[in-house]
Amino acid sequence: MNKTLRTALFTIGLAQFLKIPMKQLKTGKWDWSLFFETGGMPSSHSAGVSSLATYIALKRGIRTIDFALATLFGLIVMYDAQGVRRQAGELAIQFNSLAEEVKKLENDPKQHVYERKKERIRERLGHQPIEVIGGALLGILTGAIAYFLDRKF
Questions:
Q1: 7-61, pLDDT tens digit by residue?
Q2: Domain ranges of the chain
Q3: For the purposes of burial, counting CB atoms within 10 Å of the CB of 58, is it exposed (0-12), middle (13-18) or buried (19 or more)?
């Protein structure tokens, strides 16, 4: 497999894994399902594209079209992760709250519409800016380490 691609995929997996102990430090609970969730610190989207761009920059140089494409792609992904997807998550929070309020206002035991709704709309979709920055820094670090390990061996 392409070493650049392998570096980016490894970094995405590492970022997803790091969400588990980081959440444990906050809540005191281990939640292994976070490995498959979106959102949270660090952003695996940012980590992946940053490691890709870093590896390419070090391997091919910053004046190459490869680096330009990876950087532009990375900026779009990071903007989307903290912009559009975060807004969608905030809308999901509002929708879930509204559904709970409607249920409270109904106060009619014959109406079980909202009791049947076992699953809430997913609220963790995007990232706070600090999570995107954390992912980008992780990606830069892993991209550089992978490049220097590649050169050494």
A1: 999 999 999 999 999 999 988 999 998 899 878 899 999 999 999 999 999 999 9
A2: 3-83+128-152, 88-125
A3: middle
